[in-house]
Amino acid sequence: MADLYSQLNVPRGASEAEIKKAYRKLAKELHPDKNKDKPGATERFSKVTRAYDILTDKDKRAQYDRGEIDEEGNPRMPFGFGGGGGPQPGGGRGGFRGPNGEPFEFGGEAADISDLFEGLFGGRRGGGGSGSSFGGFGRRARAPQKGSDVGYRLEVPFEDAARLQGQRVTLGSGKTLDIKLPPGVDDGTKIRLSGQGETGPSGNGDAIVTIKVKPHRFFRRDGDNIRLDLPVSIDEAALGAKVRVPTVDGPVMLSIPKGTSSGKVLRLKGKGFTGKNGQRGDQLATVMVEVPDDPDLAHFLEGWSGKGKSNPRTGLGV
Question: What residues does each domain of the chain span?
Answer without folding.
Answer: 4-65, 150-213, 220-304
